[in-house]
Amino acid sequence: MTRELVVVGHGMVGHRLVSAVRDRDTEGTWHVTVLGEEDRPAYDRVALSSYVDGRTEDDLSLGTHDDPLVDVRRGATVVGIDRDARLVRTASGETVRYDALVLATGSVPFVPPVPGRELPGCFVYRTLDDLDAITTAATAAMSRSGPGRRSAVVVGGGLLGLEAARAMRSLGLSPHVVEIAPRLMPVQVDEGGGALLRTLVECQGIAVRCGVSVAGIVADRGRLVAQLSDGIELDADVVVFSAGIRAADGLARAAGLPVGQRGGVLVDDRCRTVDEHVWAVGECAALEGWTYGLVAPGYAMAEVVADRLLGGEARMTPAALDMSTQLKLLGVDVASFGDAHATTEGALPVVISDPVAGTYAKLVVSDDASTLLGGVLVGDASRYAALRPLVGSALPADPVALIAAGAVALGADALPDSAQVCSCNAVTKGALRSAVAAGARTVGELKACTRAGSSCGSCVPFLKTILAQEGVPVSTALCEHFAVSRAELFEIVAGAGITTFSDLVARHGTGRGCDVCKPVVASILASLSGARGGGHILAGEQAGLQDTNDRFLANMQRDGTYSVVPRVPGGEITPGGLIVIGEVARDFGLYTKITGGQRIDMFGARVEQLPAIWRRLVDAGFESGHAYGKALRTVKSCVGSTWCRYGQQDSVGLAVALELRYRGLRSPHKIKSGVSGCARECAEARSKDFGIIATETGWNLHVGGNGGSTPRHADLLVSDVDTETLVRIVDRFLMFYIRTADRLQRTAPWIEAMEGGLDHLRAVIVDDSLGICADLEAAMAAHVASYADEWAGALADEDTLARFVSFVNAPDTPDPTITFVTERGQRVPAPRTPVLIGIPEVGS
User: Fold this and answer.
1) What angle is formed at CA 218 by the lines to CA 213 and CA 223, rounded to 5 degrees?
2) Distance (Å, whole) CA 466 – CA 449
3) What whole-number distance in Å separates Cα of residue 372 and Cα of residue 317?
């Protein structure tokens, strides 16, 4: 006889429970009634913020239970449980009998008891309905006239808070995150990782305040003012509470079921309550007194209950309570897995921090350094998919070698088949290999047949690795919004004459774009603007596409200030120019330093000071040095034949001409160059993307060099060419690179990845084997003819200047968190919590 199973709640875990029961119940033992409070079908809450990026409710849907033994009732709020009669009662007065009852009621947002929290414009961040309401408010705010940028205050700097900040940014608001803990994501990352995470998040244009709380919210002339505990007031159009969750255990409490000290329905390792007919799974359940706010433990609970309902003996295990997390916020990677805080007895933290590169990596290993216990990755989480499955397993290499620059590559072959690749859905490497052997040929097909990558998505890169290892070609799609590579996207934009991102995504993509494709398209549009008279990079919707530095035409520094770098072509500068730079640095209190690219860098400018600084520099004849952009940076030179007794050609004159020719040229990555007047190579030309060395009869051109963590000498492309020929070939080289390189690919790896390598490159741009050289030269000529200084353009436009404020409600107020001390006669940032952490010796 069919028995009655009632599931209260139809979120991700409730949906998984129903699917697991029906997948296993081949005899039709259970008829399932699902009572869901929301009017919508179950959807992916992990990807909630993608809803504002253009994904629809259908895109997020987890699918329907097309099964005669499943009855899903939406909008059915359960208000009571009669355990003696085994009945549940809904708000409409309906009663439903059960033989087994599973509570999957999830959680509710925690809203601190802040006065004013119920004012119009205050929201929580939990459901699609919440996002619809926030979107409506943000749209209304963006349509209002008035000075300054529209802003949002996000209360909470944890995982969900940063996702909320990302959503606010996608809606066009300037987000400000307030976190009461001393660092962002305090549960997932440690002090060192938190310090770098804050810096990286701030570099993306998201203001952060840690160690303070919101004391109150008041309405003020149609907007809101968030009053912080340190006395600062933040003007906002929207306030979003994302400060954590609380188990939705009200039904259980009212029914007399025991709850944990911190909330949640108490369950044993079978996920059963004290009532043998009542179970609880997901965020509402307290397993041994602890609740778990991630989807992976919830899914594991659902599988255990499904097994138990059908006579199995499954139990929850410590391995099932995986709290690993990964977040990509506006290009910032952060990941945490295993024993991230080194709480295991004898655990050793192995840390490598590189503030210059913006990366932090920590592995927690056993006392003999043989077993991986956990880790934290900030700035670069590309190794997360390979490292997380190794938790509890023997390390395949020295722990330092696994996280250092140029680290040992961890391919799929480094993992045993038993390693769990997808913790959300408990999918092993062996299961993925079996799926490939059975015919899966794409990431989507692997997701469909194994569920791997279908929840949080952090293991998707490893799915690609598995496919490649098994000999299956992997897609080169730029991102989920464009199914083509960057090079193919460039050809689409150029060929179709597209001038805006919205037009491009409407015609050739999906959704609203993301933090990967938006900056790429911005770069492509800027690269092509010369051929079609494009406007300023901060004009119209272009501003919203830019990386953080480009948004303010300056490099953000670790303390939240910016650097100012005027162009000094070839390092040649007049005494008058030096005096102007000195006066500007003195008057604004800026730190000055001669750079390796033969320029003068001025550090410590606040965002609201940038227009005033640049107005003086532009009036004196200086222009942007593009130190902030993916563009030509400098053309370094020695003094050449003008002064040096060894010089064979005028290296300074050529360097100046080349820098003025290629200034403002947007590209997949930064470009550096150098010109040396003889073979002594004082300008270090062979460490540059394109380097030129004088000979007795002309110039040698070298390409594909770079410094950095993996230095590479440039290769000789042509030798003893005259200046006219040299410039023509460089034109072709740069334009070919811009058109065909991948996203964030420097010229060195671009050439190395090219089929045929340097020989192919020489055939294309020297011998014109593809017949495209005339087109490449014309494209460069268009760029040269259309060049305009970006800072001069910004100063001439009032709408652009309105962006340069620290606080939208107090444009002239400096950020009080920016402080300085004096070192060697100049102002430098006041010390923050050190990021660099030592690596203990094994056994110490």
Assistant:
1) 110
2) 15
3) 19
Q: What is the DSSP letter of 118?
A: T
| Terminal-residue alpha carbon distance, the chain | 64
DSSP 200: H
Please state whether beta strands 632-637 and 671-676 pair in parallel, antiparallel, or not at all (unpaired): parallel
Please indicate, yes or no, whether the overall pTM of this predicted structure exceeds 0.85.
no
3-state secondary structure of 244: coil
State the pairing for strand pair 223-228/233-236. Answer: antiparallel
Please list, in sequence order, all residues whose beta carbon lies within 8 angstroms of the beta carbon of residue 664, skipping any fewer than 6 positions away: 624, 626, 631, 632, 783, 787, 788, 789, 790
Helices (H), 204-257: 250-254
Q: What is the DSSP letter of 101?
A: E
Q: Which of 550, 201, 10, 229 is nearest to 18 (CA)?
A: 10
Sort strands 715-721 and 699-703 into parallel, antiparallel or unpaired: antiparallel
How many CB atoms are closer than 10 A to CB 288? 11
Tokens 């490497």 belong to 429
Q: Encoding tokens for residue 754?
A: 């090219």
Least confident segment among 226-235, 244-253, 508-517, 742-751: 508-517
Spell out the SS3 assignment of 690-748: EEEEECCCCEEEEECCECCCCCECCEEEEEEECHHHHHHHHHHHHHHHHHHCCCCCCHH
Q: Which residues pair with 377 in a beta bridge?
A: 335, 361
How far does Cα 110 stand from its chain's mean position? 26
Spatial distance between the Cα atoms of 180 and 242, rounded to a whole number of angstroms: 12
Looking at per-residue pLDDT, the higher value among 506 and 356 belongs to 506
Half-sphere exposure of 573 (CA within 13 A, CB side): 21
CA dihedral angle for residue 194, residue 199, residue 204, residue 206, rounded to 10 degrees = 70
Q: Which of 543, 530, 533, 537 is nearest to 793 (CA)?
A: 537
Residue 87, SS3 per DSSP: strand
Residue type at 184? Answer: L
| Residues whose CB is less than 8 angstroms from the CB of residue 457 and which lie 6 or more positions away in sequence, other chains included | 46, 47
Q: Are 38 and 133 in contact (CB under 8 A)?
A: no
127 exposed, middle or buried (CB, 10 Å; 0-12, 13-18, 19+)?
middle
Q: What does the pLDDT look like over 521-568, one tens digit per residue? A: 988 998 887 545 557 888 777 877 887 788 889 888 877 788 999 999
For the cut 80, the answer to whether the pLDDT of residue 831 exceeds it is no
Given a contact cutoff of 8 angstroms between Cβ atoms, the answer to whether 197 and 209 are in contact is no
Contacts with 756 (C-beta within 8 Å, 6 or more apart), sequence order: 763
CA Rg value for the chain: 29
CB 603, CB 593: distance < 8 Å: yes
The phi-psi region of residue 122 (left if phi > 0; otherwise alpha if psi is between -120 and 50; otherwise beta) is beta
Return the DSSP state at 542.
Answer: G
Q: Which of 721, 729, 660 is nearest to 696 (CA)?
A: 721
Contacts of 635 (CB under 8 A, 6+ apart): 569, 570, 655, 656, 658, 659, 662, 673, 674, 675
pLDDT category of residue 615 using cuts at 50, 70 and 90: very high
Does the pLDDT at position 814 exceed 90?
no
Tokens (6 digits) for 218? 């008041």
Residue 325's pLDDT is 78
CB atoms within 10 A of CB 35: 24
Query: Coil, strand or helix: which one is 497?
Result: coil
| % of residues, the chain, pLDDT over 70 | 92
Which pLDDT band, with edges at 50, 70 and 90, does 836 fall under? very low
- Mean pLDDT for the stretch of residues 474-503: 86
- Residue 70 phi, psi (nearest 5): -125, 125
* Size of the chain, expressed as the number of residues it contains: 844
- Strand, helix or coil at 414? helix
